[in-house]
Amino acid sequence: MSRPSVRIQRLPHGEGLPLPAYATEGAAGLDLSSALPEETPLILLPGAFAAVPTGFAIALPEGFEAQVRPRSGLARKHGVSVLNTPGTIDWDYRGELMVLLINHGPEPFTVTRGMRIAQMVVAPVTQIMLEESGDLSETARGSGGFGSTGFGATFLKK
Ligand SMILES: O=c1ccn([C@H]2C[C@H](O)[C@@H](COP(=O)(O)OP(=O)(O)OP(=O)(O)O)O2)c(=O)[nH]1
């Protein structure tokens, strides 16, 4: 399958780090590593969050976005996640890819240089044109939401 090609720029403090990469043939996300200085790891106390640099910037093609998502292993083992998940990387952003890590776990968590802290999923995105209107098309749901269909098993009415 052909893959869109995306330019990536290594920033000075990303020197020596591996490029973001798919860990397996079928991985949806490229793993992002921490570009924190070797000598100053970050200690995230329980409940704390911080923006962690990755050492790279990318130029997504127009019509694409990237989502910064947690790694389930870090979440399961340590309660560490991405605060704004999924973080949105806009196609016109040329700054450093940052990961807003949060420690939901009960223990302090240390982030070291090179640690794979999140994953980045690239996906097509559609921009829309809003048309202001006095009324909207009718549907069976109407304005029902926030649990309006209940919480038990649902069966389609024939
Ligand atoms: O987890 C994230 C989220 C965002 N960004 C970068 C890329 C994105 O294109 C830019 C702006 O993000 P967003 O639109 O979510 O932030 P905002 O608070 O709306 O800021 P802005 O006014 O700059 O758009 O910040 C990251 O590096 N990591």
Summarize the structure.
This protein is mainly beta and 158 residues long. Helices cover 4% and strands 35% of the residues. The longest helix has 7 residues.
- Which molecules are bound in this entry? deoxyuridine-5'-triphosphate
Order of helices and strands: EEEEEEHEEEEE
> Structurally, how many domains make up the residues?
1
Neighbour order of strands in the largest sheet:
2-3-11-6-8
Determine the number of helices (DSSP H or I, runs of at least 4 residues). Answer: 1
CATH class: Mainly Beta
Task: Label the structural class.
Answer: mainly beta
Alpha carbon gap, first and last residue: 42 Å
Report mean pLDDT, rounded to a whole number: 96
The CATH topology corresponds to Deoxyuridine 5'-Triphosphate Nucleotidohydrolase, Chain A
Helical content band: under 10%
Quaternary organisation of the protein chains = single chain
At the fourth CATH level, what is the homologous superfamily?
A: Deoxyuridine triphosphatase (dUTPase)
Topology:
Layout: E1 7-10, E2 21-22, E3 30-33, E4 42-44, E5 49-59, E6 64-69, H1 72-78, E7 80-82, E8 87-89, E9 96-103, E10 109-111, E11 116-124
Antiparallel strand pairs: 1-5, 2-3, 3-11, 4-10, 5-9, 6-8, 6-11, 7-9
Bound molecules: deoxyuridine-5'-triphosphate.
